[in-house]
Amino acid sequence: MLHASIRHQQPYDELFEVIKEAPPISSQKRIDIYRRAYQIRLSECLREDFTDTCQKMGEVAFEKIIQMYIDEIPPKTSQLAEYSEGFVEYLKNSSGDVYETAAKEWMVILSQRAQEPLYKLTSDQIQMGEPYLIQLHPATQIKKLVHTTVVSYRLNEEIFFLDVEASESHWIVYFREPRSLDDLKGLIGKGEILEEELMNLLFQWMKKEIIYCLPPFAKQNDFYRF
Amino acid sequence: MNPLFKDLGVGVGLRPAHRSIFLESPPKSVSWVEVVTENYMPWEKEGWGKSFQMLSRIRKNFPVALHGVSLNLGSVDTLDPHYLFRLKQLVNQIEPVIISDHLAWTGINGETLHDLLPLPYTQEALNNIIFKIDQVQNYLGRRILIENPSSYLEFKNPEMSEVEFLKQVLKAADCGLLLDINNIYVSSVNHGFNPKEYLKEIPGDRVGQIHLAGHSDQGDHLIDTHDAPVDPKVWDLYNYSLELFGVKSTMLERDEKIPEWSELEIELLNIGVIQNEFIKSNRTSDLASRIHSPSATL
Q1: Pick from A19, A80, A115: CB nearest B155
Q2: Is the CB of A33 less than 8 angstroms away from the CB of B110?
Q3: pLDDT digits over B259-288, tens only?
């Protein structure tokens, strides 16, 4: 009852029967303390994460949509930060521009949050002949939006975006798993990609830290994913 | 007899604003830190985050206490196995000196309000939370601490007082107490009870940690906002707790309007000053044993 009353911002007569009336604060006011805290907590979380979306939509429209989201979709994750992820999906029915802005803001959060790889080989180590695998950097995010596919990546603690063609996004996704040089030679051998094209992509992505090189032993221990 | 909990000295609730200080030039004013568990646990889809990596580095210099807000111990829902699994992963990585959560519930039917909601102080609620704490302790293989919450409403016809409920939880679940002095003060104003009487009821040997924090005055009630320095009345209560229980691991929480580290450090140093004054004044902490002894007279 208390849960429902806080969540739906509605008075429940039955609730007043079980709450101790203790002047000078009325029972209604006591429930309102929890209701207000719930609203503020969720609303602040969304406002903090989606400042650009708010600017794009305008204050009034943004306030209306976050209220609708809070009313319709209660948080189910123990980490409040994850509540924002659902908001992006909720905005899918809004105009394309709004959805894209929100999706990009969420990508920035994920790229910022991602940990640095524990084992990362330098170009010197690679040139010295250390064996290595290539994998997407944990901070790299890829998302198909309405018209484009976008990659976010972290370079020197800053987050950047890159619009990618379908073919390029295919190869970025390919590096979600660690890949060896033999894997890449196999692709070229089967004619799936030209050597020059692949080398060019790898060079660009390495420079941007979209991908990185890791020692083979780090394959399993690099970072934890559920 | 060895005490259940070791005095860790003065600690602080480590917030992102001050993380770089702890990474670059670890302060000498604190000997341990407490972090909000959920901010460092892996996410369901994304795994561990950069904040966890930072905490791992900080852990090399400081013992870490993990303080949870979403264990949902008081709910009628069963414990969330995904939450417990992630908590254990974090515990295994960080090897915390303390693990704690609240005498409260946060949601039902899988929904969470991200708030610490008050419990009805009934035998049924007591049995439920004791069972849950027992499950958590068995799963983690260690004792946890339970924090007394601040609250803004009480249910009618309680079968016992909050402090009686708390005492029974501590005894039956064999867990420790994270004694939040500010929460006692906030609730005492909101519900009109004597905070010193509440403190007197606490079994001192179960106190594993003390929280100090600020609150905001809303005229006819107080809110536990952690957005201000510790109130003089809360410092008074802290002094009183020293008389009752002696020096315990004590830390300062600040979650809103977080000041510069140098400003926060003044309050932290004050904890040490108060503790030292107490020790120097040679006051023994036998007051508690006198209160709890059947033949005691005050």
Answers
A1: A19
A2: no
A3: 999 999 999 999 999 999 999 886 555 565
Q: How many pairs of residues across A and B have Cβ atoms under 8 Å apart?
A: 112
Q: Is residue B195 part of a domain?
A: yes
CATH of residue B24's domain is: 3.20.20.150
Record: fold of A123-219: Outer Surface Protein A; domain 3 (3.90.930)
Q: Which two tokens stand for residue B212?
A: 């100090």
Dihedral sign for Cα B134, B140, B145, B148, please: negative
Report yes or no: A221 at the B interface, CB cutoff 8 Å. no
Does a structural domain hold residue B203? yes
A30 and B CB contact within 8 Å? yes
Q: Is the ipTM of this complex over 0.85?
A: yes
Whole-angstrom Cα distance, residue B57 to residue A46? 30
* Region of B151 on the Ramachandran plot (φ > 0 left; ψ -120 to 50 alpha; else beta): beta
Query: Which residue range(s) make up the domain with B162?
Result: 10-292
- Tell me if A75 and B154 make a contact (CB, 8 A cut-off): no
- Per the domain annotation, does B229 fall within a domain? yes
- DSSP-assigned states of every residue in A84-123: HHHHHHHGGGS-HHHHHHHHHHHHHHHHHHBPPPSS---H
Query: Is the residue at B78 inside a domain?
Result: yes
**Number of domains observed in the structure of chain B:** 1
Domain locations along chain A: 2-113, 123-219
Q: What is the amino acid identity at position B65? A: A
Residue A219: the pLDDT is 58
Res. A154: pLDDT tops 80: yes
Least confident of A101-105, B33-37, B263-267, B288-292: B288-292
- Give the tens place of pLDDT for each residue, A7-55: 876 667 788 889 998 888 999 999 999 999 999 999 999 999 999 999 9
Query: Chain A contacts of B23, Cβ < 8 Å?
Result: none
Is the CB of A3 less than 8 angstroms away from the CB of B42?
no
Mean pLDDT, chain A, rounded, equals: 91
